[in-house]
Amino acid sequence: MATRVDEEYQQLKKQVHSHLIERLDEEGFEVERTDVSLLEKFVEANVNQYIAHHRVPLATAEQIMLARETLDEIVGLGPLEPLLADTEVNDILVNGPLNVFVEVAGVLQKSPTRFIDDDHVMRIIRRILAPLGRRLDESSPMVDARLQDGSRVNAIIPPIALDGPSISIRKFTQKHLAASDLVNLGSLTRECLDLLVKIVQGRRNLLVSGGTGTGKTTILNLLSQFIPKDERIVTIEDSAELQLNHPHIVRLETRPANAEGSGRISARELVINALRMRPDRVIVGEVRAGEIIELMQAMNTGHEGSMSTIHANSSKDAMIRIETLLAVNGYDAGEQAIGRLIGSSLDVLVQLKRLSNGRRIVSEVVEMTPTKSNPYQMNVLYQAPDIREEVLEGEAQ
Predict the structure, then answer these.
(1) Left if phi > 0, otherwise alpha if psi is -120 to 50, otherwise beta: which for 150?
(2) Lowest mean pLDDT: which of 67-76, 149-158, 300-309?
(3) Are residues 204 and 315 in the same domain?
(4) Which interval of the chain is the signal sequence (predicted)?
(5) C-alpha dihedral (322, 326, 329, 330), degrees to nearest 10
(6) Distance between CA atoms of residues 34 and 45, nearest Å
(7) Same domain, residue pair 101 and 58
(8) Handedness of CA 25, 27, 30, 36 (dihedral sign)
(9) pLDDT tens column, 106-132
């Protein structure tokens, strides 16, 4: 009996898909304009007919699965469809056709999902890119894109990807966790929440720091809920993920270069433009390049209460990362001047951490208290109980 992982089944699936494409052409179906329920009936009937004609030994359950997967190939993103529909899955990572991993509750695990071969993965990548007019080939082997639901996609293909085409999807969720949810999940304490609300409403300039998958965007969304409703907010993102329930917001999104290499709009350009739009607060989804210069200067010149996120594993690492970003992106100043800019621009840093069990927490909240001799002096306002226990254990040893 064939199973999902059998090569025999995968080859059957490939043949059935080719057959269905021919039948759709013969019948003059325009897939994009045809009702899905009608396509579903057509696919089911033709799959059953193909199985009967070729006398393929498939159980009824497998035949139903084959019809469903063939429909996903025709109208959706093939093997990715069940994973995209699964609300428990946060990230989908395709490392070639046979190795698909998912992140569930902060923990990576191998999925039984697989593709037929490299060509199958490439077909799905092209389907993702087709509505966007984006290009992916040997001369341009990497691309960032976004699915219709807002999920972020990165694809990279051979010869750059040595083990076959790779897809990385960070799923976008319409349902963001409320403050009470995060407290109940143990991501932060009530004490921490009250402190963060006070910081936001006090118009302190704030940076959320953390490693990959620690929930930086989730916390930024949470903090934004406490911005007074009479303030004007301008957001700048590479991929629009922030969902601010606010009456006065202008959302800006960067744009990559087109196939000819022109038309790119960077986050730095958008921050510069945002400052001409009379914002009370500027929120940058993530600082990773030259936009750090404009954001620091905006924080230092009247746009109190601005926010952003940065990739760093600790508060001290975040300071080093900001320094580095300023230096490599042309901020022409000495070490002391850079230190003074950071110390006078940034008020509070919220550090996130993912524990070994996958739980994401606010590990600490620190206040910048710069002095003449140490522009990066910090005062710890909050430290998570989990982190305090680790520190005490370390001191005891």
Answers:
(1) left
(2) 67-76
(3) yes
(4) none
(5) -170
(6) 16
(7) no
(8) negative
(9) 788 999 988 988 999 999 998 888 887
pLDDT of residue 2: 40
Token readout for 25 is 């052409």
| Section 208-226 average pLDDT | 90
Q: How many domains does the chain have?
A: 3
pLDDT, greater one: 267 or 24: 267
Q: Are residues 213 and 333 in the same domain?
A: yes
| Domain end call among 125, 156, 174 | 174
CA distance 32 to 15: 22
Co-location of 278 and 353 in the same domain: yes
* CATH code of 85's domain: 3.30.450.90
Question: Distance between CA atoms of 350 and 204, rounded to whole angstroms?
Answer: 12
Q: Under a CB-based contact definition with an 8 Å cutoff, are residues 221 and 237 in contact?
A: no
Band of pLDDT at residue 4, cut at 50, 70 and 90 = very low
A 10 A CB-CB count for 370 gives: 16
Q: What are phi and psi of 20, to 5 degrees?
A: -65, -40
Question: Average pLDDT of 229-258?
Answer: 85
Of the candidates 127, 158, 174, which is a domain's last residue? 174
Shared domain for 107 and 135, answered yes or no, is: yes
Residue with tokens 């992982």: 5
- Is the pTM for the entire model greater than 0.85? no
Q: What are the structure tokens assigned to 171, written together?
A: 């799923």
Residue with the two structure tokens 């911005």 = 227
Domain of residue 21, residue span: 1-75
Q: How confident is the model at residue 182 (pLDDT cuts 50, 70, 90)?
A: confident
User: Using an 8 Å Cβ cutoff, are 286 and 238 in contact?
Assistant: yes
One domain, residues 70 and 129: no
Same domain, 277 and 159: no
